[in-house]
């Protein structure tokens, strides 16, 4: 369902060429004043050198940002920056403001946008050019959740990647993303991409930012409505992330047929350690990683055997309670209640349409997905065993084989 018009934005680069001829007796050039600090700067980091960029979805979203900015959504105490790495020009650092777009910096292509080197460079430029008391980050691209797959990162050759597609499917590892973000002070991260609301990803990022907005399922290529979400991003006091997530969900929930598909979650990361403790205790007591007669809630349209994202709470409950409502081990009901309490402190908002792409009924959606280890060799699938969640939680599971 096409809600946007393909927009070709001509973002021209302004080259300032000022030749000053000053005599030996002339005055010195004035020193530029530092940028004034604002309350909040939000950076949208667009990795768009892929099919999203060739279809100009990045430009469409920039136009939405301009619409929101012209309506006054940024306010007087905020700044909106966009790192726009598309397929047709060198990467640009833009500022979206009421009345127009400014080019703050042009980058070369010596570093990939999915590399830690480039990402850190952009973060440094953001703080230098748009200093603020608080920063928010939107990560815009494709997403693979916890999957540690893809071409090797030349900046960390022992790792794989799972965020952002660039060029020939180059991606950033979520463990690399965690290490980068832990050096920053973002008050929130909003993933405008697919599959990132997995408990594995959230656990990896638990020390990187206090709040995360993401989807446990695949999203429309159109992503969020930036004209709707700028206002909650720049809300007074704290960014209103629940409203931002709800805006995205309600927009797609208003569609019909195949286009009525969306899940959105807002996660409070401070509760993830306790959630891991309660899940680990249940995993250790469960007789098998995949109980008899258990049918998980899929978050993909593939078969169960090839699916990599399932509803987290539905799985944990399946480890504790059988299909007739009986506990699978002593104390299971109490442990599940402790888990639910911990989950409720992590998931601040969760919403799901009735179906995924009008194909898979979304009967259960707790706000987080998880991968289910079926056999003793499952941990090597997509390098799952490189994740902190596997080391601290899932490695305690037992297998029938």
Which short descriptors sum up this protein?
alpha/beta, 401 residues, 19% strand, two-stranded antiparallel sheet, elongated, 11 helices
Structure in words:
- By secondary structure, the chain is of the alpha/beta class.
- Helix content is 27%, strand content 19%.
- It has helices at 51-54, 57-70, 116-129, 174-181, 199-204, 226-233, 241-253, 272-285, 312-320, 332-346, 388-392; strands at residues 38-47, 78-85, 92-97, 100-106, 132-140, 163-166, 170-172, 186-192, 211-214, 263-268, 310-311, 347-352, 355-356, 360-361, 369-370.
- The strands form four sheets. It has a nine-stranded mixed β-sheet with strand order 4-3-2-1-5-8-9-10-12, sandwiched between helices.
- Strand 8, helix 5 (199-204) and strand 9 form a beta-alpha-beta unit.
- Helix 6 packs antiparallel against helix 7, helix 8 runs antiparallel to helix 10 (332-346) and helix 9 packs antiparallel against helix 10 (332-346).
- It is elongated.
- Residues 1-30 and 150-161 have low confidence and may be disordered.
């Amino acid at each position: 369902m096409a809600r946007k018009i393909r927009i070709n934005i001509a973002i021209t680069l302004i080259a300032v060429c000022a030749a000053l001829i000053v005599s030996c007796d002339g005055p010195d050039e004035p020193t530029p004043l530092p940028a004034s600090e604002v309350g909040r700067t939000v950076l949208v980091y667009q990795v768009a050198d892929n099919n999203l960029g060739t279809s100009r979805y990045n430009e469409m979203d920039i136009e939405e940002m301009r619409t929101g900015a012209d309506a006054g959504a940024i306010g007087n105490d905020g700044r909106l920056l966009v790192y726009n790495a598309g397929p047709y020009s060198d990467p640009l650092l833009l500022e979206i403001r009421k009345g127009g777009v400014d080019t703050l910096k042009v980058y070369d292509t010596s570093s990939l946008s999915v590399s830690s080197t480039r990402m850190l460079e952009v973060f440094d430029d953001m703080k230098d050019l748009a200093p603020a008391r608080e920063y928010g980050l939107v990560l815009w691209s494709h997403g693979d959740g916890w999957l540690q797959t893809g071409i090797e990162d030349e900046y960390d050759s022992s790792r794989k990647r799972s965020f952002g597609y660039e060029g020939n499917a180059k991606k950033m590892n979520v463990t690399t993303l965690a290490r980068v973000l832990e050096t920053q002070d973002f008050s929130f991260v909003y993933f405008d991409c697919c599959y990132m609301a997995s408990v594995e990803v959230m656990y990896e990022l638990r020390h990187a930012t206090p709040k995360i907005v993401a989807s446990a399922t695949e999203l429309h290529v159109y992503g969020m409505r930036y004209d709707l979400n700028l206002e909650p991003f720049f809300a007074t006091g704290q960014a209103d992330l629940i409203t931002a997530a709800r805006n995205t969900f309600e927009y797609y929930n208003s569609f019909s047929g195949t286009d009525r598909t969306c899940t959105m979650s807002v996660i409070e990361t401070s509760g993830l350690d306790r959630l891991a403790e309660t899940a680990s205790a249940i995993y250790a007591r469960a007789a098998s990683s995949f109980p008899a007669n258990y049918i998980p809630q899929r978050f993909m349209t593939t078969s169960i055997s090839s699916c990599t994202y399932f509803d987290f709470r539905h799985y944990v409950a399946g480890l504790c309670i059988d299909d007739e409502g009986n506990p699978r081990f002593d104390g299971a009901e109490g442990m599940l209640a402790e888990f639910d309490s911990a989950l409720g402190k992590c998931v601040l908002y969760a919403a799901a349409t009735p179906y995924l792409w009008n194909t898979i009924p979304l009967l259960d959606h707790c706000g987080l997905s998880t991968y289910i280890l079926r056999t003793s060799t499952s941990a090597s699938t997509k390098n799952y065993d490189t994740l902190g969640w596997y080391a601290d939680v899932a490695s305690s599971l037992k297998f029938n084989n």
